[in-house]
Write a structure and sequence with these properties.
By secondary structure, the chain is α/β, with parallel strands linked by helices. The chain is built from eleven helices and nine strands. The chain has helices at 2-23, 36-46, 59-62, 81-93, 109-119, 130-138, 157-167, 202-215, 221-240, 246-259, 262-268, and strands spanning 26-30, 49-51, 68-72, 98-101, 125-129, 170-174, 178-181, 186-189, 271-274. It has a nine-stranded mixed β-sheet, with helices on both faces. A hairpin with a 3-residue loop joins strand 6 and strand 7 (178-181). The chain starts with a helix and ends with a strand.
């Protein structure tokens, strides 16, 4: 069964990465100050074109021209929320895929309401850690450790399925195993290294990569999301072979993402489809 999964998902993930490299999709990123650098460099190293544009004045002209939109609420403020909503509304109206990263969704009432309002605008994909997905699925504040998760990804699978069914979005839960679901199917991606948790904004960066992958395969957002998570984790595994700590892993991870070849991806991605019981 594992060999069959590899023969299915390996070529699919490689196809997604090749499409990003060949098409260089334009990804508008409305993201937090902490993550802008790593997010932009991740997209560039994968072959996409990032645009860090968040002005409400520019959004009506710019957003309809992009291939995908990425919204991240990490450093959320009253001033940033209106342009996020405006861009999401335009993306949905123009049938442009958009991806939401609900950072620390359960940490405050303001943040939870903002994330729920954004979910109502029909993101194509929602990617968060287990605590964030549980907070959104239950629409309640929860035990939180800032932007870090208080739960394992396995704890949030049912919440992710519930959120996917209620929102119409593909939902991804990051963790030791990344789970991706459309409310019916569940897929797990098992690439990555523990030291990624010691680098700020890796979750933000992979969500932007999801946007790029979905941009080149709009009809299959679950498959594109699984591919992006696995490819990013694989780049970290390759980078870890040369890294001496978090700072050098960051550098080598970006280099490895840029340099992944067909053999690396087809033989290296670890994606499993779970049978519904």
């Amino acid at each position: 069964m594992e060999a069959e999964e590899q023969s299915h998902w390996g070529p699919k993930a490689w196809g997604h990465l090749c499409s990003v490299r060949n098409q260089s999709p334009l990804i508008q990123c409305i993201t937090n100050f902490v993550s802008m650098d790593l997010t932009a460099n991740t997209l560039l190293s994968a072959g996409a074109s990032p645009a860090m544009l968040h002005s409400s004045t520019e959004i009506p002209d710019f957003t309809p021209q992009v291939h995908a939109l990425y919204v991240n609420v990490g450093t959320l403020s009253e001033n940033w929320l209106p342009p996020m909503k405006l861009a999401a509304e335009l993306a949905s109206k123009c049938e442009i895929p958009w991806v939401l990263d609900p950072v620390a969704a359960g940490a405050s009432g303001f943040r939870l309401k903002a994330c729920l309002d954004l979910v109502s605008l029909k993101p194509t994909v929602i990617r968060g850690n287990a605590s964030e997905i549980i907070a959104l699925a239950n629409a309640t504040l929860g035990a939180t450790k800032g932007v870090d998760s208080s739960h394992d990804s396995t704890d949030a699978v049912e919440a992710a399925k519930s959120l996917a069914n209620s929102s119409g979005s593909v939902v991804a839960v990051s963790g030791a195993v990344d789970f991706i679901t459309d409310g019916n199917r569940v897929v797990g991606a098992r690439n990555g290294v523990p030291m990624m948790q010691k680098i700020t904004a890796t979750g933000c960066a992979v969500t932007a990569l999801i946007a790029a992958f979905v941009a080149v395969d709009r009809s299959h957002p679950l498959e594109a999301t699984a591919s992006a998570l696995a490819v990013f984790g694989l780049a970290a595994e390759k980078g870890m072979e040369m890294a001496r700590g978090p700072a050098s892993l960051r550098m080598h991870m970006i280099d490895s993402l840029h340099g992944l070849d067909q053999t690396d991806v087809i033989s290296g991605v670890k994606i499993t489809s779970f049978v519904k019981e």
